[in-house]
Hints:
44% of the residues lie in helices and 22% in strands. By secondary structure, the chain is an alpha/beta fold.
Amino acid sequence: MTPERRTSEGVASVETLMEALPYIKQFHGRTVVIKYGGAAMRNAELMEAFAADVVLLKYVGLNPVIVHGGGPEITTYMERLGMEVRFHEGLRVSDPETVEIAKMVLLGKINSDIVNRINRHGQPAVGLSGEDGSMFAVRPVANADEVGNVGEIERVDVDVLNHIAADYIPVVASAATDASGSSYNVNADAAAGKVAAALRAHKALFLTDVPGWLEDPNDETTLISRASVDEVERALATLDGGMRPKLQACVEAIRGGVGSAQIVDGRRPHSLLLELFTDAGIGTMVTP
């Protein structure tokens, strides 16, 4: 490498740090809720980048809280067992057997893997589910006759999260049990929105496998980079598929007092840092 090239790369690195500095100051001490999912949870390189990003957020003074699902892995295990996999309006149709498989995958594998990866990158993480400390109070969703044992969160008790987040990085699996002991499959996007609102988080970020909210779902050049919560609510009735629960979760977060919610392309390495610490940002931002 020539001295000129080393110098130009060094200058670029310093400029990047200087661009990030105002955002680091702004976000210091603030809580950021991150819904972790999609390709960022399946690709080994992206998984390492995500863990490194989260650790960096903690080191520079943010309080990251991770909420995750595990849809593709749950589907894989169901298919291995010969179980039918069905979705309705972006929600997994869940009988009691499906819920048991989902809990096994979420808590026994995915949650543990995320915690271990973050630990290896230099910050202690603690794995939780909605059942720990009775964090999530749930009830059946309104269309339970169509989707089965799918629950919606009525209340989030943040005492456990606040205690843990003071010193550790909480990693929350979207599984929950109601007062009678019945288990429910809880959509991870919805759970992240509820957690962000309950924590009065500064930001909520939702990692997905598209650039953001697309005006035309088949054309990635039609990205809607910014929208108000009112605009999102008006559009929800016309949407279906996986983007709908993400946008609903953004609305839940904003209506609960969160400063902004972002849908971010998790296929890009270090997408969290690009969204939080650069002027351009990426994805779709939903604002009050």
